[in-house]
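Continuing from the previous page...

OK, I double-checked the sequence for DoxX family protein against my notes and this is the correct one:
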Amino acid sequence: MNAIKKFLATDQQSWSLLVARLALAIVILPHGMQKTLGLFGGYGFAGTLEFFHTSMGMPIIIALLVILAEFVGSIGLLFGVATRFMAFSVGLTMAGAAILGGSINNGFFMNWFGMQKGEGIEYFILAVGLAIVILIGGSGRWAIDNLISKKLK
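Thanks. Re-ran it with the corrected sequence; updated structure tokens here:
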């Protein structure tokens, strides 16, 4: 029970943690929706799983975890459910995407004008940075974790 209390512990009045949590959720959710639901030009669940496995050589279990991290993780962040775990999942996925997806080799900047061979790492630095903030600080205001934490007291 003590471990659960520590896992859920946060400054329940923190606006900054709320903003960080919502910003990360809002940015990652459309990517998760591409991968699971096929929205925004995505492949959908089966197509993404197949692409990750056959084209990128990713083991099926890792591909599944990536898809879940972006979709379920962003929804969890949005509502503040298991916030630290969701932030860790999203942060790890974004770090992996930067490294394994090749962005780390494309320099710093996003490819706004199509002048470089791919996207740089600036987006990933922001996503991982927000995930670390949430991982350390917790969910902040307006989180389901806060309701669970109050019940455990």
